[in-house]
Write a structure and sequence with these properties.
Helix content: 25-40%
Largest sheet: 6 strands, mixed
Strand order of the largest sheet: 4-6-7-8-9-10
Shape: globular
Structural class: alpha+beta
Length: 342
C-alpha cells in the first residue's frame, strides 16, 4: 500500500523508491560536505615550516631561472603590456621557475591559497618538500606559530625583473615568496639566483637581514623602477628637492634589498623606495614582510597599509623605508592624481 492509501503500479512504486533514495542521498551528502568543510577550516600550518618551505621554493625556482639563462634557452615571448606601456616579457625561465615553486608549495599544502604571477597548471611537478629546516632558521625561530590554513595567502614571483633577465642585467633578477596571514605579510623570501644569496624574514621572530647603520634623508637617495624613472622624477624632486639622487633599477625585490645591509656586493644602496604606478602584490609582498620584520614600512603613497588578500593589484603606489620616520616621508609627498596610476 502506498502513502495515504494510494495504490501504485509496480512502476510507480519503483519511481517512488528512487525519489526517496535521492532525498536521502542529498541529505547525507550535505552532512558529509559540511563535516569536510568544518575539518578543512580547522587545518593549521606552522609558520616556521612555511618559512623553510618558502626558502626552498625560491631556491628551486632560482635554479631553473639560472639554468635557462646559462643555456640561452629563454624562448622569449610577449604576454602583453605593462601599465606603463612597456612589453611584458615571458620566458622559459619564468615558466620553469613557476612550476618548481608553485607545485612544491601546493603539493605540500594543497589546501592553502597560492597566487603566482605565471599560470601553467597543466604541467604538474611531483616534488614535495622534504621538511628540512635550515640551521639559520632553526636558530632564529625556535618554535613556529600555528595559524589557520584558511587565513593564509601565498604570493610567489617566479622571476622578478624579466625584462632585465632578457637583457642579461642579472643582478636585478630575483625569485620571491611571501606569506600573508589575514592580509598582513608575515613571511618574506627574496632569492638572487645568480649569486645564491637568499634574504628571509618571519615577522616577530627574526631575519637573516639587518638595516644599515645610517640613512641619509637630506636629501635621500631614492630607488625607482627603470621603466618609469623619468615619470617619477618630478614627483620625487617636489618631495625632497631637486638635488635628490634618483637611482633607476629593475625588480621590486632588488629595490627592497637596496634599503638594507646585504652581504651581496652587487646591490646598490638607497634610502627610500618609491613606486607611483600600478604594481602587483607578488612583486612587493616579500619585500614588505622583510621590512616589517626589521621595523621598516611599506605603505601606499598615502601611508596606508597594503592588504595582501583579495585582488592581485595595488593601484595606490608605494613608499618603503626603514629606520627613518616613515610618516614624515609620507607627509612630504605631493598629491598624486589617481588618473596617473593607470
Amino acid at each position: 500500500m502506498a502513502p495515504m492509501g494510494i495504490r501504485l503500479s509496480p512502476l510507480g512504486v519503483a519511481v517512488f523508491c528512487l525519489l526517496g533514495l535521492g532525498v536521502i542521498y542529498h541529505l547525507y551528502a550535505g552532512v558529509i560536505s559540511s563535516r569536510i568543510a568544518a575539518f578543512t577550516s580547522k587545518r593549521t600550518v606552522n609558520l616556521r615550516d612555511l618559512l623553510a618551505l618558502s626558502v626552498e621554493a625560491a631556491v628551486q625556482g632560482g635554479r631553473e631561472v639560472k639554468r635557462v639563462r646559462e643555456e640561452d634557452k629563454l624562448e622569449e615571448k610577449t604576454k602583453g603590456k605593462t601599465k606603463e606601456g612597456a612589453s611584458e616579457k615571458l620566458t622559459q625561465g619564468d615558466l620553469n621557475s613557476h612550476r618548481k615553486m608553485y607545485y612544491l608549495i601546493k603539493n605540500t599544502y594543497p589546501y592553502v591559497q597560492v597566487n603566482s604571477e605565471e599560470h601553467d597548471e597543466a604541467n604538474n611537478e611531483l616534488g614535495v618538500w622534504n621538511r628540512d629546516i635550515p640551521a639559520d632558521i632553526l636558530k632564529s625561530v625556535e618554535v613556529g606559530r600555528d595559524v589557520p590554513a584558511d587565513s593564509i595567502t601565498i604570493w610567489i614571483d617566479p622571476l622578478d625583473a624579466t625584462q632585465e633577465y632578457t637583457e642579461n642585467l642579472l643582478k636585478y633578477v630575483t625569485t620571491m615568496v611571501c606569506v600573508a596571514v589575514d592580509g598582513k605579510p608575515v613571511i618574506g623570501v627574496i632569492h638572487k639566483p645568480f649569486t645564491g644569496y637568499t634574504a628571509w624574514a618571519l615577522v616577530g621572530h627574526g631575519s637573516n637581514m639587518k638595516p644599515r647603520t645610517t640613512y641619509n634623508m637630506n636629501p635621500p637617495k631614492v630607488i625607482v623602477s627603470r621603466s618609469h624613472a623619468g615619470k617619477v622624477k618630478g614627483f620625487i624632486e617636489e618631495a625632497f628637492g631637486n638635488t635628490t639622487v634618483i637611482l633607476p633599477a629593475g625588480g621590486a625585490g632588488y629595490k627592497v634589498l637596496a634599503l638594507l645591509d646585504p652581504l651581496d656586493e652587487d646591490i646598490e644602496k638607497a634610502d627610500v623606495y618609491i613606486h607611483v604606478t600600478f604594481i602587483k602584490k607578488w612583486d612587493i609582498c616579500a619585500g614588505n614582510a622583510l621590512l616589517a620584520a626589521l621595523g621598516g614600512h611599506m605603505t601606499t603613497l598615502k601611508g596606508e597599509e597594503i592588504d595582501y588578500s583579495g585582488a592581485a593589484g595595488n593601484r595606490e603606489g608605494l613608499l618603503a623605508s626603514v629606520k627613518v620616520d616613515h610618516q614624515d616621508l609620507v607627509a612630504k609627498l605631493p598629491a598624486w592624481d589617481s588618473s596617473d596610476k593607470h
